[in-house]
Amino acid sequence: STTSKVAYFKRKYAEEEDVQGSLHGYLQKHLILREERSCILRLSLQKLRFLDDPEAFLRRAVLINNLLRKIHSDDGQRDRDRARNGEKEEEEERERLFYVDRKRLKVMVTPEHGHPIFL
């Protein structure tokens, strides 16, 4: 009976510790995030004070950012063009097999011996 009471209190104490520990961890994490944000803000304001012309710095930063976006966009467009060109090459190959004469459709057939025949 006494061992069950001891086990009960140990378990209850451990459960309370878990709740308090998780609450403490949450609050501590929240406070750390807040401190980090305030530190970043403070450093940013200090840097801003040391700039001779903050507007020129901002324009330069925007130009650099726009250039990076353009480069990224151009790379994406180049990849899409390559994919399309691959499709175009297949289409051109099909067009070589089928082409229209003035009066009738001609089809190039390659039999097993490998010499093309136009029908």
TrEMBL record:
Compositionally biased intervals (Basic and acidic residues): 74-87
Renumbered residue ranges of the record's region Disordered: 74-93
SERTA domain: residues covered: 33-79
InterPro entries, A to Z: SERTA_dom
Pfam families: SERTA
Top-level taxon of origin: Eukaryota
Name of the protein: SERTA domain-containing protein 4 isoform X2
Organism (species): Silurus asotus (Amur catfish)
